[in-house]
Amino acid sequence: MAKFTHQADHTASKEEIWNWYNSKGAFRRIMPEWEGIIPVNAGALVDDDETIFKVSLGPIKQKWVAKHHSVIPGEQFADRMMRGPFGAWNHVHKFESVSDNVTTILDDVEYKLPVHFLTGWSAGITVLPRMRQMFKYRSTRVTNDLNQIQATSGKPRQRVLVSGSTGMIGLQLCAFLEAAGHEVHRLIRLTTKLPADVDSQQVIRWNDQTGEILEGDMNGFDTVIHLAGAGIGDKRWSKKRKRIIRDSRVIPTRNLSEIMANLENPPKSFLSGSAIGFYGDRGTEVLNESSSPGDDYLADICGQWEDATKSAEEAGIRVVHLRSGIVVSPLGGALSKLLLPAKMGAGGPVGGGKQMQSWISLDDEVYAIHHLMVNESSEGPYNLTAPNPVSQKQFARVLGRVLRRPGFMPLPGFMIKIMFGEMGKKLVLEGQNAVPNRLLESGFEFTYTELESCLRNCLGKIK
Questions:
Q1: Where are the domains of the chain?
Q2: Is the pTM above the cut of 0.85?
Q3: Secondary structure of the chain in the HEC alphabet?
Q4: Where residue 285 falls among pLDDT bands split at 50, 70, 90?
Q5: Backbone angle region of 435, left / alpha / beta, with phi > 0 → left and psi within -120 to 50 → alpha
Q6: Distance from C-alpha of 332 to C-alpha of 139, rounded to nearest angstrom
Q7: What backbone torsions phi and psi does residue 387 show, to the nearest 5 degrees?
């Protein structure tokens, strides 16, 4: 069989690395963002447990079933493909101590392509580049996660309740919190469909519009993280859609605040979603957390959203407002919509391209929320944006460079208004130059401060 090997050193003990790999969240954390892998079952690191996921082969999703074997706790584990796209696949992970706080992860893969005697020659073109990028990404993700976990190792692990746990940010946040040793529960509506790999026992069900708890007990959590809300850019804005956007944020936040304020054993902390739309369209004006609010639709929504936490704040619960910028990931959000035209060379400046885009990597969004969760002195609004905002024209140019595609087709602003109406005007033609002053002052260190390194990592274009 053909062989592939990868080796990486990590500043962590074997125990720390084993605990990360053996956590509930590790499998989702280790899957490359650009691959579009869908976890079905994340097997524990014991012999004969199965890990199952769906992987894309062009437009086709194929199920991959891998069985763990040769498990030596703290030392190694292996998985053999029982069903999937390869003719054969066996992957051995070994952890070797270099010193007390440095560990080498050795990945040895033996594989065969389907009909290997005919297709084996193509591995250098079809398989190996993809594998190299995947293992580089894995090593980077493990290193970054461990850095964050070690930075907060002196803080107690928490019992955390997360709403919006099935969204792009929520899925990765819950996975990281589990990898970091926290006990994660999910606050969901009756209609919410949980991903197949999520523990359906650790849930609380409620009616977010009435505040009625239908199943479970809200008492006893250390922190509640509230991220739920209808997608702002999912559909054209009609009066009905704008009402849904508001009501899916303001009403549940108010209900949740009132519930927590009246609990016998309330949480110590409440981290509630918001957005840099709070500031309105301000051109290139540099905006920090003390900047005044805007006066448009999104600014009004964000203001009401933040005001809806009053009951929790008055009850003595520490409240943090997460004013998120553009979260950069191919898993969803703005980047997922930009990729296809950018790959076709149509990723040029939109509406002149001068509008500012305050972005943040998906990893730093997750790490910042965790940082604010465990730091008890953090409260009030925080801009969750990287320190270096860019114009839309700069964003398009960097994306084109990463994808090796020219951005030759500018798109006039009036076309955006025709295609998307008010939504397009607010989300594409306007922007904010928001900076994370308070986050930096709190001691948070960004993993990705430059857009190009962020895009290369999440798109599998690592140099």
A1: 2-151, 159-458
A2: yes
A3: CEEEEEEEEECCCHHHHHHHHCCCCHHHHHCCHHHCCEEEECCCCCCCCEEEEEEEECCEEEEEEEEEEEEECCCEEEEEEEECCCCEEEEEEEEEEEECCEEEEEEEEEEECCCHHHHHHHHHHHCHHHHHHHHHHHHHHHHHHHHHHHHCCCCCCCEEEEECCCCHHHHHHHHHHHHCCCEEEEEEECCCCCCCCCCCCCEEEEECCCCEEEECCCCCCCEEEECCCCCCCCCCCCHHHHHHHHHCCHHHHHHHHHHHHCCCCCCCEEEEEEEHHHHCCCCCCEECCCCCCCCCHHHHHHHHHHHCCHHHHHCCCEEEEEEECEEEECCEHHHHHHHHHHHCCCCCCECCCCCEECEEEHHHHHHHHHHHHHCCCCCEEEEECCCCCEEHHHHHHHHHHHHCCCCCCCECHHHHHHHHHHHHHHHHHCCCEECCHHHHHCCCCCCCCCHHHHHHHHCCCCC
A4: very high
A5: beta
A6: 23
A7: -70, -15
Encoded amino acid at 240, one letter:
K
pLDDT (tens digit per residue) in 44-95: 999 999 999 999 877 778 999 999 999 999 999 999 999 999 999 999 999 9
- Report how far residue 340's alpha carbon sits from residue 342's, in angstroms, rounded to the nearest whole number: 5
Which residues are bridge partners to 452 per DSSP? none
Point out the least confidently predicted range of 193-207, 224-238, 339-353.
Answer: 339-353
CA distance to 121, 164, 187, 264, 291, per residue, from 303 (Å): 59, 20, 23, 29, 13
Name every residue whose Cβ is closer than 8 Å to that of residue 177 and which is 6 or more positions away in sequence. 25, 160, 162, 184, 370
Residues 248-268 have pLDDT tens digits of 999 999 999 999 999 999 999
Structure tokens, 451: 């857009």
Q: Across the chain, what does the average pLDDT equal? A: 93
> Token digits for 86?
């390869």
Domain 2-151 has CATH 3.30.530.20: yes
Confidence of residue 346 (pLDDT cuts 50, 70, 90): confident
Number of residues in the chain: 463
Taking the alpha carbons of 17, 18, 21, 24 in that order, is the dihedral positive or negative?
Answer: negative
Query: Are the CB atoms for 20 and 149 separated by under 8 Å?
Result: yes
User: How far is 429 from 422, CA to CA, in rounded Å?
Assistant: 10
Q: What is the pLDDT of residues 385-441, one digit of tens each?
A: 999 999 999 999 999 999 998 876 777 777 777 777 777 777 777 899 999 999 999
Model confidence over 4-14: pLDDT tens digits? 999 999 999 99
Fold of 159-458: Rossmann fold (3.40.50)
